[in-house]
Amino acid sequence: MDRIAGIINLDHEQDVLDELTYFRCGAAVPFAGRYRVIDFTISNMANSRIESIAVFTRRKYRSLMDHLEQGKAWDLDRKRGGLFILPPDWNDPTDISRGDLQHFHNNIDFINRTLADYIIVSGSQNICNINYRDVLEQHKESKADVTVIYKEVDELYSEHQHAHKLDVDDSGRVTGIHNDLQNRNIYMDMYIIDKSLLYNLIEECIAHGCSHFFLDGIKAKINELKVHAYEYKGAHSLINSVESYYRNSANLLNHKEHDDLFREDTPIYTKVKDEAPSKYSHDSNVTNSLVANGCIIDGHVEDSILFRGVKIAKGAVVKNSIVLQRCEIDSNAVLENVILDKNCTITHGRTLIGAPEKPFVVAKQRTM
Fold first, then answer.
1. Is residue 9's pLDDT more than 90?
2. Which residues are within 8 A (CB) of 297 and not within 5 positions of it... i.e. 6 or more apart?
3. Which domains does the chain have, with CATH numbers?
4. What is the average pLDDT across 119-143?
5. Potential cystine with 19: which of 123, 229, 322, 363 (Cβ 3.0-4.6 Å)?
6. Confidence at residue 320, expressed as pLDDT on a 0 to 100 scale
7. What's the chain's average pLDDT?
8. Long-range CB contacts for residues 327-333, cutoff 8 Å, separation at least 24
């Protein structure tokens, strides 16, 4: 079996989820009731039998490190390989690298020491359930230098505006990488590359004063390298704004959307937290909602997502909202089109209402 190593590159991802990224990077943002955004990328790699994974992170990574720990949830706490969290550590006084090439340069030992022949590089903002072994098979069959992964979306949303798009010819070769607003071939910030080629391109990019490996090492060399495309056809969400986070979270209340992402044969793993099942009183009324364990519900919940340990008091109403861990909604409070970060308290009789296209967001540990 061909060996693959994984790199999750968070360096160029911006903290664009407003209050949700005040105190954490985007990869550590909770999603879908009990997961974090990065869980999907790591689970995809683990399910593809990738046993050595590095995470490049630059800012606000305390919460991420606390969540990932030693990688036990993904069976990555092992003697050989495993999960490596690699925050900034620029100790080489001769280093002239910039941007995410600093991470590639200063952690080049990870690439050199891995026994893998291929490297899969991914961000965290594209949530999906993909088998990278299928990508590798196409990569080998096409004899490509690089294989980039894309999704042809049915409808373009605001989050796709700044995403890179691909032009792909009939042979599967990528002929253009750009930001055409009408192109529906969304580049998913994932590519597979031969280990030796990755090493050579890193050295070349640094020597030429570049700062972004994908843009300067692959996109800029589209006519020199044999870059092929792999079309992913499964469930997909791009999370790069509060609006995209809210809408794609709400989509999971649709059973088909949920089941397409959370497949039984390739499960999504996360940090285990042992809590009791949720408790519903006789006064509670819960419809079309995703409720994690440990919740106590005495009020009305409709079309909403509740994370672990949420308490909804009698007379409280929660509609079209996302309530993160350990929030408390007191009696007769009303939430509609709201996102509450963790450990918030909404006091008796308080009403918070946002718009479906612009949800009201409350930063964590607030009392209102």
1. yes
2. 278, 279, 280, 281, 284, 286, 291, 306, 310, 311, 312
3. 4-261 (3.90.550.10), 279-362 (2.160.10.10)
4. 98
5. 363
6. 98
7. 95
8. 329/299, 331/299
